[in-house]
Amino acid sequence: MSILSNRINNLTESQTMKMNKLARELAAKGVDVISLSLGEPDFHTPGHIKEAAKQAMDENYTYYTPVAGYPDLRKAVAHKLSEENHLDYDASQIVVSTGAKQALANAVLCLVNPGEEVIIPTPYWVSYSEIVKLAEGKSVFINTTVEQNFKITPQQLEEAITPLTKLFMFSSPCNPTGSVYSKAELQGLAEVFERYPQIYIISDEIYEHINFVDSHESIAQFDAIKERVIVINGFSKAYAMTGWRIGYSASNKELATAIDKLQGQITSATCSITQRAGVAAYSGGLESVLQMRDAFKRRRDLVYGLLKDIDGLKVNLPDGAFYFFPDVTSYFGKSYNGKVINDADELSLFLLEEGHVAVVGGDSFGDRKSIRLSYAAADEKLIEAMNRIKGALAKLQ
Q1: What confidence tens digit (pLDDT) does each residue in 44-96 have?
Q2: Element (H, E) at 167
Q3: Which long-range contacts (C-beta less than 8 Å, at least 24 apart) are formed by 214-218?
Q4: How many Cβ atoms from other residues are within 10 Å of residue 10's Cβ?
Q5: CA 391, CA 252: separation in Å to the nearest integer?
Q6: Please, are residues 360 and 19 in contact by the beta-carbon 8 Å criterion?
Q7: Which of 100, 126, 276, 357 is a plausible cystine mate for 56, CB 3.0–4.6 Å?
Q8: Where do the domains of the chain lie, and which CATH numbers do they carry?
C-alpha cells in the first residue's frame, strides 16, 4: 500500500521534463544529442537586467518582500499592461509569483471547487490539466486539428459549456502549437462568454512578444468580460529569463487578494533579486526582445522549410511562440528492427534513440497524433536536427 496521497499518485510527470532528462542521460553516455524538448530560449538574459540584479545584491535587497511583490515592480507591470496591451489594471491587481506556472496554479486553486469543470482547448500546455487535477476539478477538452491551425471556434466553445463549467484556460500565442488568435477570433469567443457570467477565463500570454503576425491581442480587452479574465504573463520567454523564475497574474481585486492569500501560505514572495531584475526588464525598452523575436522568426522559416521536405509529416506554419507541432500519424504502424511505432510518444522515443534528437510526444499536450519540437536553438543545430529526424524517419517501414 502506497504511503503517498492520491493527489500525488494521480499526478502525471511532466513529459517535457521527462524527455529532457532522458536526453541528458543519453548525452552523459557520450552520445551527441540535440534537445528540442524544452521551451527555453537559447539566448542569454540581456546585460542591463543582469546588472540590475548585481546592483540589487550590492544594495542589500536580500530580505523578505511583500508576498505579491515589490510595489514598484507591481506598478511596472501595471504600466506595461497599459502601454503595451491597453489594459487598465491597478498595481493592487497584480500578484508576482515564482514563474508564470505558479501564477496559473494560484488562479486555478483560487477559483475551482472539486467537481467543477475547466474547458481547455487541445493541444494545451502539459501542466494545465495537471493543475486542474490538483484543484480536484474536471478538465473538459475541445479538440482541434492542424487543418484549423489548432484554434477553436465559438460554436465549439458553446457546445462544451455545461452548468458545471467554472473556467476556461488557453494560451495565445500557444504552447505547443504556436497558434495566435486574432482580435476577431477572440471577440467571437468573448461574445460566448458574455452569455455565461459564471465562467472565468485564464489567458496565458507568456509568449506575447514572440508573435510573427500582428500586434498581440488579449481577450481581456473586451470590457464585457474583463472582470472575469485573469491575464498570466512573465519574463521567461520575452527576456530569456527562464531560470530567474518570475511571472505574474492580473485579475480583479477580489481574486488578486485571494491569490496573495494562497501564495502567502505556499511560497510567499519570489526572489527579491529577481524582482529587481524584473523592474529593469520592464523599464529597459523592447530592443533586445524584438531582436530575439526576429531571430525566432528566421528560425521558424528555416525549420518550416526543412519539415515540409520530410515525407509523412503534416505541418502548418505557426504564427508565434517557438514550436512546431506536426501530425505524425502516417508513421503509426511502421517499424524498425522489429519495433512497431504505435503512437507519438513511441515515435519521440524512437527519434531520441535512433536520431539522437529529443522532442516531446503529443499525448501529454492532449493530442496523440503529433509531436512537439522547439526551434529555440542555433541555426546549425536546427539544420542538423532536422536532417537527423529525416534520416531516422526514413528507417521506418
Answers
A1: 999 999 999 999 999 999 999 999 999 999 999 999 999 999 999 999 999 99
A2: strand 165-171
A3: 214/182, 216/84, 216/85, 216/173, 217/172, 217/181, 217/182, 217/183, 217/186, 218/85, 218/87, 218/186
A4: 11
A5: 52
A6: yes
A7: 276
A8: 6-44+288-394 (3.90.1150.10), 63-283 (3.40.640.10)
